[in-house]
Amino acid sequence: MIQNILDYLENSAASCPEKTAYEDLENHYTYAQALEYARRIGSALLAVLPQNAPVPVLMEKEAGTLHVFMGAVCAGCFYTLVEPEQPLERIRTILETLEAQVMVTTRSIKEQLQELEFPGKILLAEELLKHEIDEDGLAGRRRAACDTDPLYAIFTSGSTGAPKGVVVCHRSVIDFTEHFTKIFGFDRNDVIGGQAPFDFDVSVKDIYPALKVGATLEVIPKRFFSVPKKLLDFLDDRKVTSLTWAVSALCVISMLKGFRYKVPKNIRRVMFSGEVMPVKQLNYWRTYLPDVLYVNLYGPTEITCNCTYYKIDREFGEEEQIPVGEPFPNERVFLLGEEDQLVTEAGKLGEICVTGTALALGYYRNEEKTSQAFVQNPLNRCYPELMYRTGDLGRYDEKGELYYVTRKDFQIKHMGHRIELGEIEVAFQALNGIERVCCVYDEPNTKIIGFYVGEPEAKEIIQQLTERLPRFMIPNIFRKVERMPITKNGKIDRRALMAEL
Ligand code: AMP
Fold first, then answer.
1. Phi, psi of 478 (to 5 degrees)
2. pLDDT tens digit string along 114-166?
């Protein structure tokens, strides 16, 4: 039984040592090299850190960064990617939250970050790679490890206040990876095109499936996501077969009609998550790549990547929504109503709640927030069973398929009506000539504002929307934007939109 994700790396290094494990524009590393570098770095880290200590990694999105992640794990520690380009103040908050004794970076980033004045030890990745392997030290750390030990911490963007570090253990990632690779048929011939930044948990779905099956992970440069031609050339040249991307990243290609330039020939699987996938954009992909498996993946970082999936198995009209589907095995996903009662009837809204091995350990050094979000399952009065409240509202249809409706925070009270902004967005998105939409509520002025990318003017939109929505749901103000601002995690940036008002 797999108890430590290093088993994945070791098994692949033993069965396909010469195969490329990770690759980016400049470098590529075989499985044998990946394991060796991980062990060297791990040996260096275990000399200065106790078991289960955090290893903040201030490095770019490149293949070599993965050696440091695996090195941290070899040392019995856990890693956190800290994006070096974010504001210094946020980097400081993260390092303080972690009570980090060391940080790992590169020489050039260290020079850029002199003002950080980190009080701990700064270790350079290029030096750690040369460290001698400490066989006994590594074996000792491995013996002492448990599968409930932390593997990584991901700091959520934290819409209010300080960022929270979601800590996830080996067991949760192993459980997820086993099901994920099996259900979607990953194998050694896969070439995974990694879109997600390493401080976003979509990257977990790139890294561990690749390691488990001995596939190759192509780390795509961030800048390619604003230049579809380069992106499409990359996917085609590297013979990428599998994409697990944020919705917005897929939309970059479809909104700019990228496939007119080139259709990558090897893609066989396209999975998306993070936001509602606009059917119009999905249909564009399906027109050019009809024989591909498309999957809607749903879930927050706190339940380890995703808790439900829906394999697209039929045509969807533009006014339809795609279900979020069924729970992954070994996870329980259900809806709770306002009195914490189980909701099973079609059409009724409830908060999406999750129990099972998938639950994160909590927020690092933040008992208060942990106990607010990870609570006793109110349906179980017999023994301790933790449940995560996602803060998302969902509903079932007549066929029992689960749909994501909206964030609880996006449920508004407007002119006496309870409205889900997500529902307005689905109708709005389906209109002719509309590419992407986002609705926000300007509470002080009691106005619904509809931001959109597309051709039509407000008058025409109102005319079309009147046929689909009750009057009180039609946005009061329409704002045409050149393109949607996107957060670092690939979601529409609502705060940036509000700031434009
Ligand atoms: P994150 O923790 O950054 O992955 O964000 C998780 C949140 O993104 C969820 O709680 C949902 O609000 C939203 N989300 C994730 N996947 C989907 C999806 N397939 N459809 C709609 N919303 C999603």
1. -115, 135
2. 899 899 999 999 999 999 999 999 999 999 999 999 999 999 865 445 789 99
Cα separation of 15 and 213, whole Å?
A: 10
- Residue 393 β-bridge partners: 351, 406
Provide the token pair at 320.
């339809």
Q: With b meaning 16 or more CB within 10 Å and e meaning fewer, what string describes 49-61?
A: beeebbbbbbbbb
Q: Please answer whether residues 73 and 38 qualify as being in contact, where contact means their C-beta atoms are separated by less than 8 angstroms.
A: yes
Nearest atom (ligand 1) to Cα of 301: 2
Name all residues whose Cβ lies below 6 A of ligand 1.
201, 273-276, 296-298, 300-301, 324, 390, 392, 404, 407, 489
Query: What is the DSSP code string of 114-149?
Result: GGG--SSEEEEHHHHTTSPP-HHHHHHHHHH--TTS
User: Cα(first)–Cα(last) distance of the chain, in Å?
Assistant: 55
Give residue 422 CA to ligand 1 midpoint distance, Å. Answer: 13
> What are 159's two structure tokens?
């819409």
Asked if residues 206 and 244 have their Cβ atoms less than 8 Å apart, the reply is yes
Residue with tokens 């979509």: 202
* Phi (first) and psi of residue 410, to 5 degrees: -95, 10
Rounded to two decimals, the pTM is: 0.92
In this structure, what DSSP letter does residue 383 have?
S
